[in-house]
Every structure is written in C-alpha cells, then in structure tokens.
Amino acid sequence: MELTHSLARPVAAARASRAVAWWLLVIAVMIYAMVVIGGLTRLTESGLSIVEWRPFTGVVPPLNHADWQALFDEYKQYPEFQKINRGMTLAGFQSIFWLEYFHRLWGRLIGVVFLVPFVYFLARGRIDRALAPRLAVVFVLGGLQGALGWYMVKSGLIDRPDVSQYRLAAHLAFALALYGYLLWLVFGLLARPRAPSGTVPGWIGPAAGAIFALICCTIVAGAFVAGLDAGLIYNQFPLMGEGLAPPDLFAMTPAWLNFFENPSAVQFMHRVFAVTTFVCVLLLWAATRFPGTAPRLRAAASVLMAVAALQVLLGISTLLMFVPIPLASAHQATAVLVFTSAIWLLHEIRMARRPAPLA
To answer: CA 191, CA 173: separation in Å to the nearest integer?
Structure first.
C-alpha cells in the first residue's frame, strides 16, 4: 500500500504541473491577443477615446444616450477632438470608443482569469512552492502594466493628440516581458526529460541569445515607428529616397536624438534591425541543417526561420502599401510570433543540454 502511494504522488504532481501549465498558457495567449488589440487601437486611433482611468467602475459601458453624451462631452475637452476630430459626431465617437473599451475590458479579464485559478491552485497545493511567489509577482506586474497603459494614454491628453513614443515602447516591452516569462514557465512545466538525439553545437546558445536580443530591439524600434507614424514616409524598399539611408537621417541635434524622435531615422533604425535579424536567423537556420543536429532543435530553428521570413514580407508590404490596417495589424501580430519562436528555440537548446535521464 505504501509503495502504491509513493508511486501515485509523482503522477499526481505531474498532473498538477500540467494543469498549471495549461492555465498559464491560456494567460499567455490572452496577453498575445491583448498586444494585437492594443496595436489595433493604435492603428485606428481609438486609444484616446476614453479620457479617464477607472480600473473598477470602468467595466460598465454607457447604457443610454445621456451616458454616451457625457463621455463624448469629456472627449471634446481634449486635443484629439479639438485638433483632429472637431467635426466628429456622437456616432463617430462610438465607433472609436468600443475598441478601446474592449481593450481595457480584456486587460481586466486577464487579471480575473489569472487571479481566480491562482487562488484555487494555491489552496489545493498544486503550485510548487518555488513557483508561487513568482506568479504572485507576475500578477502584481500585470496590474502595474495597466497603470503604465494609462500613463501612456495620458501623454496624449495634454498638448498633442498622440501618445508618447517612449511610453508606447515601454508599454509594449513590458507586455512582451510578461508574455515571454509566462511562456518560459509553460515550456518548463510541460517539458519531459529525454535522451540526447543529436548534437548541440556549443556556439548555438550564445547565437540564439544574440538573435533574441535583436528581435527584442526590432520590436521596440517598431513601437517607435508606430508612435511617430514613421511608416507613412519613405514608402519604398530598400531605398529611402535616393539611397539606403534617408537624407534627413541626422536632422536633429544631438545626433542620438534622431533615433528616438526623428521619424526618418526611426524607420531607418527599424529597417536595419529587421534586416540584420533576418540575416542572422537565416544563418542560424542554415547551420542547423547539418546531419546529426538534434531534431527538435532543427524544428525550432525552422519555425523561427519561417515566421521571420513571413514577418519580413509583411513589413515590406505594409510599408509599400502605405500602412493599411489589416496588413499593419498582421505585421504586429507576427512580430510576437517571431518573439515566441525565439523563446521556444532557446528552451529547446536548454533542454538538449540537460543530462540524459537515468535508465
């Protein structure tokens, strides 16, 4: 009987681990959707339609004409209406309100879907003691991400009807950090020890880490492009004007400021990061084609290569077609898939280097 119980404990623990992993995966997918929805609010210029931050009472939408009119009157007091949308009707306001409302509501829903199962799993003892405090920190950071989102929106309610590109980039980077950390936990919880099935070159870990860093830099540079509407200029590729670099690359002083506030330089920087990243991914993929390379490692590199190639095509198409919303949204969504694929590759490298399980 004691032997039966001792064998049942690891099985129960494995089941609990998988349940926690699937729950965290749901949260990660919801964060991915949140990033896509946030990109759409930016592309449709809906993000400044709600001019107050009410984390709890803001769940209830306008229920009658008087509520709608009150919100519209508040919106009229801010720069976006006064400088851009002065001719907007109540119906026009409603059309931009709903996307931002859903964006904020989705963020609240993520909090609920995280907190309720977390308390349940914790009470039932299904969360490892080492993991519990990490997840508690993730929940707190998720709340801070909401505050950072409002801090971003607030920057567009002061003088210019546009959010700060610095705050936009920080908001996106913070979301991806939470998303990436949850994915890493999920991969770890679902992983099973396995015997080595091929070689893992010593250089591939640092190379994949460098590529991951390049991907992060490219995405953040893309946030600056979005924040400055830099995709609406130099709509050609690979040239920018008559050369590879724009003629007004260093129009601002000091020189470094151009890469954060000059739309031409910001687009150029995004191009450089994107092309460099793709070339590095291509080289890494080619290097994993040699016979004997661990199959799962080759598969992860191939997925990263395929998604990166798709992302390059979407980026060039979005630029050449003057940033149509469907293409631009797909470009932003695929950027997160590239980020996801790189995390999977890093995890496969880590698992391939673990000692083989004892027979």
So the answer is: 27
